[in-house]
Write a structure and sequence with these properties.
heterodimer, A: 378 residues, alpha+beta, Rossmann fold, 5-stranded antiparallel sheet, 26% helix, B: mainly alpha, binds adenosine-5'-triphosphate, binds magnesium ion
Chain lengths: 378, 280
């Protein structure tokens, strides 16, 4: 079992509050990813779960048992560090066997367990080597081997792939996902890489300044960000934001007026009394189309990147020169400083009130095309 | 590394190095030459490098003129080794604590250690004598070892602490997550990883202990059999004259173990430094 519950978890360093009250329930077997900007407390939260950092207040439960005061092993967790933290003087075999040696496990069983772990991680031929003789990816696998050999119920990963190059990272991502399904364990994974978060997670926890901004499946976060922060954080390039004024608001849609006078009806659930208020419209760069759409925007591209498959235009919009990014087809006729007319569809747009809280969008997540998601994440 | 020096800069660098080497090595060369000379060739004026009748005789006769010479050498080595081992037993756990734990008075204590370093053993020799006398420890190995240990510990802690602070804390956290206790982690993880640093501390401690034992032996010991080499060498000072050639021969043989140890351990240090495998 690897069920984890957090109740009003706080952490302060001196007078600085780093974690400001986290409530989170993680079911057995889930793959949960913590993302957020640098310094938002991802590592701190993970280390509090691990037992490496004291919990200032609140409660962490693993399998229904309060673990606040237990050392890491007694919590039934194991952890993989960003720097691998292999023991440089021990062979790969001894590195993997270390947790079992601490337990004083019998030779035969220890050997069987180490061999099983090394088989899963394809390290059989490397068992006699020292960490210094391994490549980055192999070292990372040894670190994972050391984590799985004790067969814990919860795995914690703190940016385990960030020291690897892009190709290796992609491989390891797949391997970790496979491992997750093989081991039937709960995994909590910290990263600031969106691709990792989107591709591996069952649920993503977006942290912002020590608080949970939103929890949801990758698609949920992409299509129904709960607030401006999540909307801007998930998706690459970032979502574009435009100031708009509410014209009419009803349960079946909201009509807004852009600064150039253009009107657009969005399929979001409106709230009463919004008319005349200043709101923020969000539109993802990949949802802009050349021609078509419910409304045409005129942009002035400043930089154009041609990636072959896509063209990314970094443009400015309107008289305030609001930065605006558009992802277009590879052959899109865009040129620097040539006005570009792009269409947006009301059904693609997001709407946020003055406090940054999103209006509920009317999209069914099950009808979505997964390739869209991959595009957004890459 | 790109070759950044011009030829004349190289000449200057090597000239400087040469000068330094001459300065450092000249006493050894002279000692060696003296050890080869017969006594009456010692004070020839003008100075000559080669004098008549040079031989290695002194290296053989010295054992006869001072029969306990081998014993002094062993004593020297034993005292220095004991100081090193006992010192390390205190230095390693202490510097680990100083490098890893936050506790009240930590910085004050480190400051005190530095202050102790500045006070040489000589200043404390009379009070120490009284202590030894009251405890009935005069004329024992212990009397020569204990103060030595006390004086090498502060330096050792300063040296090793800075090395331990460079070991990533994640290594210990990993061990902690793996279920290892503090002591287990120290023995199985920290000490092996810190071995190059510990070797450096061991060498400096050994050399310091080798050098400082003279003072303690002279003061706390009057049993001939327990004397270390520096005190034992006094036996070459006869009533009328000093047997310089045998004295020099004995000195050179006496420093040989330290020299060998140093050469051997230096290799070890280099090997240890290049074997590091912590990804940073
Ligand atoms: N030991 C500490 N003492 C004081 N402040 C700390 C300590 N450790 C972390 N912090 C602070 O806590 C905040 C969160 O740090 P944390 O390492 O959890 O960030 P993170 O989300 O993991 O960031 P990154 O993506 O850069 O790893 C930071 O503002 C950091 O300065
Ligand atoms: Mg971090």
């Amino acid at each position: 079992m690897g069920q984890l519950n957090m109740r009003a978890v706080h952490k302060t360093y001196g007078t600085m509050e780093v974690i400001k009250g986290i409530d989170l329930d993680i079911a057995h077997g889930e793959f949960v990813v913590f993302v957020g900007p640098s310094g938002c407390g991802k590592s701190t939260l993970l280390r509090m779960i691990a037992g490496l950092e004291e919990i200032t207040s609140g409660e962490v439960q693993i399998d229904g048992k309060r673990v606040n005061d237990l050392p890491p092993v007694k919590r039934g967790i194991s952890m993989v560090f960003q720097s691998y933290a292999l023991y440089p003087h021990m062979s790969v075999y001894e590195n993997i066997a270390f947790p079992l040696r601490v337990e004083k496990m019998k030779k035969a069983e220890l050997d069987a367990r180490v061999r099983r772990a090394s088989a899963i991680l394809k390290l059989d031929e490397r068992l006699g080597h020292k960490p210094g003789q391994l490549s980055g990816g192999q070292r990372q696998r040894v670190a994972i081997g050391r984590a799985i050999v004790r067969e814990p119920s919860v795995f914690l990963f703190d940016e385990p792939l960030s020291n690897l190059d892009a190709a290796l990272r992609a491989d390891m991502r797949v391997e970790l996902s496979k491992l997750h399904s093989e081991l039937d364990a709960t995994m909590i994974y910290v990263t600031h890489d969106q691709v990792e978060a989107m591709t591996m997670a069952d649920r993503i926890v977006v942290l912002d300044g020590g608080l949970i901004s939103q929890v949801g499946s990758p698609l949920e976060l992409y299509h129904k960000p709960a607030n401006l922060f999540v909307a801007g954080f998930i998706g690459n390039p970032k979502m574009n934001f435009l100031p708009v004024v509410c014209e009419s608001s009803g349960l079946d849609g909201v009509t807004v007026r852009l600064e150039d006078g253009g009107k657009l009806r969005l399929s979001v659930a409106g709230r009463p009394g919004m008319e005349g208020q200043k709101l923020t419209l969000g539109i993802r760069p990949e949802h802009l189309t050349t021609g078509g759409g419910d409304l045409q925007l005129t942009l002035l591209p400043r930089v154009i990147e041609r990636l072959g498959m896509q063209t990314v235009a970094y443009a400015s919009y309107g008289k305030d020169e609001t930065p605006f990014t558009a992802v277009l087809a590879g052959s899109a006729p865009a040129a620097v400083n040539q006005p570009l007319h792009l269409g947006i569809a009301g059904s693609d747009c997001h709407l946020f009130d003055r406090d940054g809280v999103a209006f509920e969008r009317d999209v069914a997540l099950t009808d979505l095309d997964p390739t869209q998601l991959l595009q957004a994440a890459s | 590394m790109i070759d950044r020096y011009r030829w004349w800069e190289y000449v200057l660098i090597y000239l400087g190095l040469g000068l330094l080497l001459v300065f450092v090595l000249a006493p050894f060369v002279e000692a060696f030459l003296v050890s080869l000379r017969p006594l009456d060739g010692l004070f020839s004026i003008p100075y000559r490098f080669v004098t008549e009748g040079m031989s290695f005789d002194a290296y053989f006769t010295m054992w006869k003129s001072v029969p306990l010479l081998w014993r002094y050498m062993l004593n020297s080595f034993f005292i220095a080794a004991a100081v090193t081992v006992l010192g390390l037993m205190a230095i390693i756990p202490a510097s680990y604590a100083f490098s890893r734990f936050e506790f009240k008075g930590r910085n004050v204590m480190m400051g005190c250690f530095l202050a102790v370093n500045m006070v040489s053993g000589a200043v404390l020799i009379i009070p120490l004598y009284k202590v030894m006398q009251n405890l009935g420890l005069l004329n024992t190995y212990f009397a020569m070892i204990a103060p030595g240990v006390a004086f090498v510990i502060p330096t050792g802690i300063w040296l090793l602490r800075s090395y331990l602070m460079k070991i990533p804390p994640e290594l210990e956290e990993a061990a902690l997550v793996d279920g290892a206790g503090r002591l287990y982690t120290l023995v199985r993880v920290i000490i092996p990883v810190a071995m190059p640093g510990i070797m450096v501390v061991a060498i400096t401690t050994f050399i310091a202990a080798y050098a400082q034992q003279f003072l303690y032996a002279l003061t706390f010991n009057s049993v001939n059999e327990l004397n270390p080499l520096p005190v034992g060498l006094y036996q070459f000072f006869g009533r009328q004259h000093v047997v310089w050639n045998e004295l020099m021969a004995a000195s050179l043989v006496g420093i040989l173990p330290v020299l060998l140890l140093y050469v051997f351990l230096q290799k070890y240090i280099v090997a240890g430094l290049t074997a590091g495998a912590v990804k940073s």
